[in-house]
Amino acid sequence: MSADATKALVPAVLVGLAVGVFSGLLGVGGGIIMVPMLVGLIHLSQHEAHATSLAAIIPIATVGALTFAVAGEIDFPVAGLLALGARIMARTSEGLLKTLFGLLMTGVGVQLLLA
Amino acid sequence: MDLSLPIALGIVGFGVLTGLLSALFGVGGGLVMVPFMVLALGESQHLAEGTSLLVIVPTAIAGVAVHRRKGYVSFKHALVLALGGVGGSFLGATLALTLEDIFLQKIFGVFLVIMGLRAVIEGFRRSRHHRASTVS
Questions:
Q1: What is the CB-side half-sphere exposure of residue B37 using CA atoms within 13 A?
Q2: Using a CB-CB distance cutoff of 8 angstroms, which residues of chain A are in contact with residue B85?
Q3: If we measure between CA atoms, which residue out of A109, A68, A10 comes closest to residue B84?
Q4: Domain boundaries in chain B?
Q5: Neighbours of A3 (CB within 10 A)
Q6: Helix crossing, A3-26 with B75-98: angle to 10°?
Q7: Band (B27; pLDDT cuts 50, 70, 90)
Q8: Which residues in chain B have Cβ-Cβ distances shorter than 8 Å to A112?
Q9: Nearest alpha-carbon partner for B49 in A53, A13, A22
Q10: CA–CA separation, B76 vs A110, rounded Å?
Q11: What is the predicted ipTM?
Q12: Residue B72 and which of A48, A82, A107, B106 are 20 to 30 A apart at CA?
């Protein structure tokens, strides 16, 4: 690789490093700080920055999750339920969403009645 | 933690809500999932952060699959970002694990307040623009 091409990679590697530290420290994906950096420093369009940040988050969050997993700091059942909810949301219609919201209210109501 | 059926349903419901918020405002799930687990489920900050990161992985994969069809994902950039990113996230997570839980919770709180105020200012500015353009 030429020196110029290598030099062009440096800002992106540094943005990745900063976002990674932020993500691992706080347990978030880091998109909220990565997207503005990709637009401002790497000059991607808003759409590209959003989509590309999601792709970069996959390995970043995987390494963070593994580090917490080794220390025993993951609640797997809760993770499964949250991921299930996010999955439902991703493929849901408005009607189904309303049904689910109704179920949630019913569940909370029942809990209040039994408490 | 103890998972009764209503609580389990509530957690799934919160996952749905998180997905909805992400879609509406373009924020990631971690920002809302971590405080939810700490405040509503009573998890430690460490456990909430590790769990949040694990949930983010499949969610981001699903998101990439959607955006890839529209051709917005620059895998070249993502690869370079990940090069620095995986080292950074290992460092960040290791640092988080060495910090005391309550201290880490306070750092997260400061971060959330900053992000919250930024959103308030941006929202306020936009609504003023909106009013200015509808009044005249």
A1: 33
A2: 16-17, 19-20, 23, 56, 59-60, 63
A3: A10
A4: 5-135
A5: 7
A6: 40
A7: low
A8: none
A9: A22
A10: 51
A11: 0.89
A12: A82
